[in-house]
Design a protein that fits this description.
about 400 residues, mainly alpha, globular
């Protein structure tokens, strides 16, 4: 698929995702109306309002009331309040613009290298869906400094505040990104009709398995080693005294750890193993996706493998979180909506580790495929020389003599 054909569905999907998030944010004030609690219940309305707050133009109470930001009385207090409200509005404008700016390039790369034709439709849908979560997370990240500054205390524990802001707004993204991905894929399928047959990489099975194993090993490093309780606690305690950039432990955990686990001390072994089954599912999904990815791509490149690995990691995270949601019988007493708050967690770490895993898989694939091609060429030359008749070999030797 050419850039001209691919840019149409990518831009349409980016616009739809941005509009859906804007609409969800604008609808947040309806959850505070008196009749809403009577219809859906107070706890449900409060939980949904918490989900929609990162995308809402309604500022939080400290910004609305000027608490901790007024710094004076009368006109000075009013001026400060207006300034901080303007900062909050700017943060939301940057956030919505960044969603579109981050979604379009990734979706364009995916629909070009993984076009939604027969045999690739489901893979493209899953890839674009998970990339929508990544785009939303990046948008929240780049707009976080303005949002923190609008609270009037941006100089206090900046990095922990940044980590807290980045981890918000993910639940709404899961739904809106799925809708935007469906529209993007359908438009891409329509624009791909009438084009020439799409090429497909021929990848040796052994090379694909080695590449998938290398990429999965990177994910396992974060999930098994870095996420172990003792190691995660060591990361949390990192606190160099460097002014605004002190206490980076929360931020490092946000971008490096895909989970958190400890030994089964104090809990039944069966329950501990069931909880760890979600991590096994995550690694299985990543390995299977990376194993299939080279054969689905029209051209195996490092950017395509890197973005594909990020999408595979996010997909594995969603699968593991859904499994935990289904098996957490004790948490059901708090309600399904409360348990669903974990859906979409860990996307920043999936982005970091997925990029490294994709590069590792691409390099391993290239090396393994190169060795396989060399071995095949040597075998073919040997077979050709063995098949030459003795008379022909004698004639060739006579001809080479001076």
């Amino acid at each position: 698929m050419t850039y001209r054909r691919g840019v149409i569905p990518a831009v349409a999907g980016g616009l739809l995702l941005t509009v859906l998030l804007w609409w969800a944010g604008m609808s947040a004030h309806a959850l505070h109306l008196p009749g809403t609690s009577g219809v859906i219940g107070g706890p449900t309305a409060a939980e949904l309002a918490h989900w929609l707050a990162p995308w809402s133009y309604d500022p939080p109470s400290p910004v609305q009331l000027g608490t901790d930001v007024s710094g004076g009385l009368g006109d000075a207090a009013g001026t400060n309040r207006v300034s901080y409200l303007a900062l909050y509005t700017t943060a939301l404008q940057i956030r919505f613009g960044a969603v579109f700016a981050f979604f379009v390039p990734g979706a364009l790369l995916l629909v070009r290298r993984l076009p939604p034709v027969r045999g690739r439709m489901t893979a493209t849908l899953l890839a674009v869906w998970t990339w929508g979560l990544v785009a939303g997370t990046l948008a929240v990240t780049v707009s976080a400094p303005w949002l923190i500054a609008s609270g009037g205390h941006g100089s206090y524990r900046l990095l922990p505040q940044l980590a807290s802001v980045i981890s918000s707004g993910r639940q709404v993204l899961v739904i809106t990104a799925l809708v935007a991905a469906a529209v993007t894929v359908l438009l891409a399928r329509a624009t791909a009709k009438g084009t020439d047959p799409l090429p497909q990489e021929v990848v040796p099975a052994r090379a694909a398995r080695l590449a998938a194993t290398a990429g999965t090993a990177v994910i396992a490093l974060s999930l098994v080693v870095l996420s172990y309780q003792a190691v995660a606690a060591a990361l949390q305690r990192i606190s160099p005294n460097i002014g605004l950039f002190a206490e980076p432990g929360d931020l490092l955990r946000q971008w490096l750890l895909l989970g958190g686990w400890a030994g089964p001390a104090g809990s039944p072994l069966g329950g501990w193993l069931l909880y760890r089954a979600a991590d096994v599912l995550l690694l299985a999904v990543v390995w299977w996706a990376l194993r299939r990815l080279p054969g689905l791509l029209t051209r195996v490149t490092v950017p395509a493998m890197a973005v594909g690995a990020v999408c595979a990691t996010v997909l594995g995270l969603l699968a593991s979180q859904l499994l935990r949601l289904v098996t957490d019988w004790e948490g059901m007493r708090w309600g399904l909506l409360h348990l669903s708050a974990v859906i979409g967690d860990g996307v920043p770490a999936a982005l970091t580790c997925g990029l490294v895993a994709g590069v590792a898989a691409a390099v391993t694939l290239r090396m393994a495929a190169g060795r396989a091609a060399t071995a095949h060429a040597v075998t073919s030359d040997a077979a050709t020389s063995d098949s030459v008749p003795p008379d022909a070999a004698t004639s060739a030797q006579d001809t080479d003599r001076p």
